[in-house]
Design goal:
- By secondary structure, this protein is mostly beta strands.
- It has a domain of 228 residues.
- 13% of the residues lie in helices and 46% in strands.
- The termini are far apart.
Length: 341
Amino acid sequence: MSGVTNIIDSNFTDISSKATERLVYNHPVLNTGAKNPMTLQRQEIKDRLDASPHSKTIVDLDEIIEKWVWKMWELSKRSREDSKYRREELDVKLNWKRVNFWQSEAVFTRPAQLRMPKSQILFRTHFSNNTESEQEYSLRAERSTITTLNFTFMRGFTKEKEGCVTLKLPNEVLEVGGGLRHEQRVDYGKDSTFETQMTWSADSAIRVAPHSKANAELCITEEEYSADFSVEVRFSGRISAMISTRNNTGGYYKYMEGDLATIFAELSRTGGIGGSSGQFEIHEQTQTVRTVMTGKCAFRYGIEQHVNVEQEKLPMLPSSSIKTNEPPPKYRPLFLSNNAH
């Protein structure tokens, strides 16, 4: 059997036809025109959230496609060359470059609740004035806090290659959470926590009355925000795969490709997606697969800072311990004469 060289994983175009079998599966005419991002209806999101279970359901798209690849490989065995290999001896590489993904804007839903900011003391000091006049002191301090954004997916999918959803934070968070980026990019179906450092500083003049003590504190107010989020994702296009012997030994290669919507439709009918088949909707007219990813988010961020100053009188010292600047008294010696009568 002739050898094969210059195999490129990204497009599989440099493979000799003599050494490679090509299997093209379900080749419908696709509308390749650009599609605009969708706007997901809020009522539809609410209905899906109410109907969805509370358990975590994350599907691996690569595993779904690999099931289809092995099924087609079994059905396409036509020669002794195909039959002499076991699946354990073969490897599959998927190519997603001809698959396009779109998403709607994320919708955040939360029960109506009052905001309950929490105060945190970052720095505390005190100034004591034991003099008879007012004194002025300088307060300079700089401290940092951590802003935390946590996203947890309850329903969705993952994909090995790069891919993410863009979540635009709610306006009510952006209005008070200084320094937060408007858009957060989160990998498909992967729980993520983002932390950023926020610096707070104070430079104030503190006036302290005579015989008084001033206690100064640098405080910040933090707010916690939690909500459910939903985002619609659609994808369409053609997926291709290469089956080859592991470590490229043996010279066996088989190329196959198929329309993604057709693959999902067939796997849904045959149970190839498992208990998550209802998670995906297939639109045959547009050859598009549609799903809604849901999850929970929890944010913690600072919203304001302030300096608290409280003054109190110093305790009175005993008179014996009071220090004065008066000089010690002067004494005159007293001489007594022995001749006094």
